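Figure 3 (text version): structure tokens given as input.
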């Protein structure tokens, strides 16, 4: 998750952007990566478990951000994956 003005990321120009989800929400990056590995290894049971954990943590992060910055509700939190 990055703070960007639009969702048009380009690896060459954006590879050094800092990830913004702080602990304990930073675990969602690892969960997503592990889920993708399990999916490509065709271990769908593990994939489903990991992606469920990722989705829960992602939703918790959205709620945290909305509560943390209630006056700034002109933005949208999007999952770019």
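Below: residues designed for each position.
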């Amino acid at each position: 998750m990055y703070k960007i003005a639009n969702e048009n990321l380009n690896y060459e120009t954006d590879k050094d952007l800092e990830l913004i989800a702080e602990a304990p929400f930073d675990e969602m990056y690892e969960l997503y990566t592990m889920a993708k590995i399990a999916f490509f290894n065709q271990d769908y049971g593990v994939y489903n478990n990991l992606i469920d954990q990722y989705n829960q943590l992602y939703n918790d992060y959205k709620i945290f951000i909305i509560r943390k910055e209630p006056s700034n509700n002109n933005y949208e939190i999007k999952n770019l994956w």
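The helical segments are 11-14, 27-40, 44-68.
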